[in-house]
Design brief:
A hairpin with an 8-residue loop joins strand 8 and strand 9. The chain starts with 17 loop residues before the first strand and ends in a 6-residue tail after the last helix. It folds into three domains: about 230 residues, 3-Layer(aba) Sandwich (Rossmann fold), CATH 3.40.50; about 80 residues, Ubiquitin-like (UB roll), CATH 3.10.20; about 90 residues, de novo design (two linked rop proteins) (Up-down Bundle), CATH 1.20.1440. With about 450 residues, the chain is α/β, with parallel strands linked by helices. It binds flavin mononucleotide and iron/sulfur cluster (SF4).
Length: about 450
């Protein structure tokens, strides 16, 4: 079968039917996904120890909660992998009020669709995690900024929030603790850049979703200029488990020293069983994920490439997949775990078309504030386009690498790197595929 002209499917348009287990470890989420009862409070209370962590947290000092978060080795699941306990620890006695807690539910990185399942099937985990987070940093107001396309999830989240208000888990004097916490769902209008935390905060404030200059970081001046903690959906949904069972227990769920817990993976592309999977953090290699967990490459074709961490991540070849799927091991092979969205590409698919599609996306989504990103992304797109149309020049590959070098690390936010890294890696690792268009007269 030839897939050369087929659309490469990745991201939230996929309706994921498959989901995986832990490969020998404990799972926190996956057993509740696909169960339509799980999102309701009775199920949450009966099967998931619902709101017991919140009760426990109210009996702890705020410093003790932050300490457990630090011990847990939970690292942000939004892409950067920053340790959550350390982030929460940036808020201290001297931090002015009011403070805010914002959940990043933009899930805009192409290939990523795991937060969607948390919001759809286990929304109370996120709500409970946010109330505990709010208590830990003394924030009385929280926002969930959700991508505009997630209409169903926004509705389901709102229903769960209403349930929580009804039972006194949100609102004034929660469970008689004296702590108030209000939670609002804010729908975005569908822009990748609003997943970047400061672009998100601007959008939340009703401004254009343009990233801000950092510093100041959100913990110093975030939403409405006030100290704000921004965390990803999966990050916050882990909090009730950590408070209930302890940071050490959570840390040991992971298989590497600095990575605690489990990871939800979004697997898409040419694989037999795409979907959302849960594995121990650092518990498998990419090869094991593709062949053991996901049943191998579609139609038993040969593997051509893997994009390991969402479309921002530099590509790996089929020879590079015996690497542990976690933050540091992937950094060592010059790519990244990002949002743990793994895209599999078979030998039937044209990698030049793939990088063209990815580059077009970043060019379209650039907010335009920085010259290297605004101009460079479109320039790279147009060069790859002319290569595809048989009008490429010998020097184009060197030019692409040069433009990529002049974007990476020279922009306000990481969208520039997200666009530059993949182009440089595709050109370096799949040179003959580009040359087939430039020299061999191949046409798209
Ligand atoms: C261009 C861009 C897009 C991003 N999109 C998302 C996103 O959709 N969801 C997310 O949680 N983080 C996203 N991030 C990362 C956030 O800026 C931020 O690091 C994250 O929300 C922090 O939460 P965490 O520490 O829990 O991971 C994006 C970053 C960049 C540069
Ligand atoms: S890197 Fe791109 S998206 Fe980010 S602020 Fe600059 S122009 Fe905007």
């Amino acid at each position: 079968m030839n897939n050369q002209n087929k659309e490469f499917k990745m991201g939230p348009q996929m309706e994921t039917g498959n989901f995986g287990g832990s490969q020998g470890g404990e799972t926190l989420y996956i057993q509740h996904f696909r169960n339509e009862e799980a999102r309701f409070l009775p199920y949450y209370m009966e099967k998931m120890q619902g709101y017991t962590a919140l009760k426990k947290a109210f009996g702890m000092t705020q410093a003790a909660i932050v300490d457990e978060m630090k011990k847990s080795n939970l690292r942000g699941r939004g892409g950067a992998g920053f340790p959550t306990g350390i982030k929460w620890g940036f808020i201290n006695d001297k931090t002015p009020f009011p403070r805010y807690l914002v959940c990043n539910a933009d899930e805009s990185e192409p290939g990523t669709f795991k937060d969607r399942d948390i919001m759809r099937y286990t929304p109370h985990l996120l709500i409970e995690g946010m109330v505990i987070g709010g208590f830990a940093v003394s924030a009385n107001v929280g926002y969930i900024y959700i991508r505009g396309e997630y209409t169903r999830e926004a509705k389901l989240l709102q229903e769960a929030i209403d349930e929580a208000y009804d039972k006194g888990y949100l609102g004034k004097n929660i469970l008689g603790s004296g702590f108030d916490f209000d939670l609002t769902v804010h729908r975005g209008a569908g822009a990748y850049i609003c997943g970047e935390e400061t672009g998100l905060l601007n959008s939340l404030e009703g401004k254009r979703g343009e990233p801000r200059v950092k510093p100041p970081f959100p913990a110093q001046a975030g939403a409405f200029g006030k100290p704000t903690i921004v965390n990803n959906v999966e990050t916050l949904a882990n909090v009730p488990f950590i408070v209930n069972r302890g940071g050490d227990w959570f840390s040991k769920l992971g298989r590497l020293e600095r990575s605690g817990g489990t990871r939800l993976l979004s697997i898409s592309g040419h694989v037999k069983k795409p979907g959302v999977y849960e594995i121990p953090a650092g518990g498998m290699t990419i090869r094991q994920i593709i062949y053991d967990l996901c049943g191998g490459v579609l139609n038993d074709r040969k593997l051509k490439a893997v994009i390991p961490g969402g479309s921002s991540a530099p590509v790996l070849t089929a020879d590079e997949i015996d690497v542990i799927y976690d933050i540091e091991p992937l950094m060592k092979v010059n790519t990244m775990l990002g949002s743990a969205a793994l895209m599999v590409v078979s030998e039937d698919y044209c990698v030049v078309k793939l990088i063209h599609r990815i580059t077009k996306f970043y060019a379209h989504e650039s907010c335009g504030q920085c010259t290297p990103c605004r101009e460079g992304c479109h320039w790279m797109e147009s060069i790859i386009e002319r290569i595809l149309h048989g009008k490429g020049r010998e020097q184009d590959l060197a030019l692409l690498t040069d433009i990529s070098d002049n974007i990476a690390g020279k922009t306000l936010c990481a969208l520039g790197d997200a666009a530059a890294g993949p182009v440089a890696s595709f050109v370096k690792k799949f040179k003959p595929d580009f040359e087939a268009y430039i020299r061999g007269g191949k046409h798209a």
